[in-house]
């Protein structure tokens, strides 16, 4: 009996060593505060351009990491996102797309929650039961749409049904959260994927508790809720393999670029603090990046997020931080 107990202890120690070996602290990299302002929300990055929204004044803004120039893009009701030379956001009941090279704007009437890749713009149209347009997704009927900026062609991708949550697009594939009403008081939400050339729709998750899908290349990342816990999952759509990334029950807000997934992990405790973590799909390694921030997004070796100000005179202000993995 003593030998069996010893074997169990040795086995447990080996498991702990294994887990520790795949979780590391970021030794290389540099964190820089790039913007200090009140009520910053929803950062996005592409290349050397960072975008965000400010609730004070309801504006979409852009920062050039190379020149240090800040540009006001326009009035915004939601957070802007950038891909290539195009920035998109929602201004009240309309979706706006700004070409930052030419300054030309495209406006889509009665639309919300946009995502963009190249010339393809994805968004949601909503309506009430009587068919009248609605300006938010709390309405009963919502449909996912695709608009090609070059051809000015709009295509309805899904029928009008229950809420279509924020979408993500990469090349010819669109990922979004689809809600279905199970009964009068219960809903299920799954992550679905739409292939533009084939018009095929398939489910990425089928648990009924998924949200926050993001896609880059063949990797789709999302959040699953189980027993009041939230964890990050991923699926390689080329290999048809699904993996659970986190097991702490406090992880949310994933973003993906290349073979890296970043997310926000809330820590239990009185201070309700949080931290950014990164998972490398190729090496199966999880890395702790930094402490007490929000809204992580990644492009190449750059992670951008929101954190508190170090200004003792006005600590309520938020800041945008850049963490350069290769610095």
How would you concisely characterize the structure shown here?
This protein has 327 residues and is mainly β.
CATH level-4 homologous superfamily: YVTN repeat-like/Quinoprotein amine dehydrogenase
Structural Rg: 21 Å
Low-confidence sequence ranges: 1-22
Question: What can be said about the biggest beta sheet?
Answer: 5 strands, mixed
Strand adjacency order, main sheet: 1-27-26-25-24
- The span between the termini is 54 Å
SS elements, strand count: 30
Helix proportion = under 10%
Mean pLDDT comes to 85
Number of helices: 1
Shape from CA axes?
globular
Under CATH, the topology is which?
A: Methylamine Dehydrogenase, Chain H
**Strand content range:** over 45%
Structural class: mainly beta
Number of domains: 1
CATH architecture: 7 Propeller
> CATH class, anyone?
Mainly Beta
């Amino acid at each position: 009996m003593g030998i069996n107990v010893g074997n169990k202890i040795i086995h447990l120690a080996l498991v702990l060593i294994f887990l520790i070996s795949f979780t590391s602290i970021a030794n290389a990299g540099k964190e820089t505060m790039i913007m200090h302002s009140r009520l910053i929300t929803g950062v996005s990055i592409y290349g050397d351009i960072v975008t965000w929204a400010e609730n004070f004044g309801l504006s979409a803004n852009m920062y050039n990491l190379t020149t240090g120039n800040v540009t006001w893009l326009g009035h915004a009701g939601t957070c802007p996102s950038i891909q290539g030379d195009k920035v998109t956001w929602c201004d009240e009941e309309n979706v706006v797309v700004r070409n930052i090279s030419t300054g030309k704007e495209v406006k889509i009437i009665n639309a919300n929650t946009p995502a963009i890749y190249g010339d393809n713009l994805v968004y949601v149209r909503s309506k009430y039961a009587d068919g009248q347009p609605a300006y938010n997704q709390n309405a009963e009927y919502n449909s996912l749409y695709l608009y090609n900026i070059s051809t000015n062609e709009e295509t309805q991708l899904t029928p009008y049904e229950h809420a279509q949550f924020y979408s993500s697009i990469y090349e010819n594939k669109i990922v979004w959260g689809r809600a279905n009403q199970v009964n009068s008081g219960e809903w299920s939400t799954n992550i679905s994927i739409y292939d533009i050339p084939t018009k095929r729709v398939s489910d990425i998750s089928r648990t009924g508790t998924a949200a926050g899908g993001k896609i880059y290349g063949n990797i789709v990342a999302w959040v699953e809720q189980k027993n009041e816990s939230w964890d990050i999952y991923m699926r390689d759509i080329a290999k048809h393999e699904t993996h659970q990334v986190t097991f702490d029950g406090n992880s949310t807000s994933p973003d993906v670029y290349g073979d890296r997934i970043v997310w926000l992990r809330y820590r239990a405790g009185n201070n309700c603090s949080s931290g950014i973590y990164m998972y490398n799909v190729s090496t199966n390694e999880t890395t702790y990046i930094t402490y007490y921030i929000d809204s992580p997004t990644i492009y190449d070796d750059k992670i951008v997020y929101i954190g508190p100000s170090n200004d003792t005179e006005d600590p309520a202000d938020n800041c945008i931080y850049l963490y350069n993995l290769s610095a």
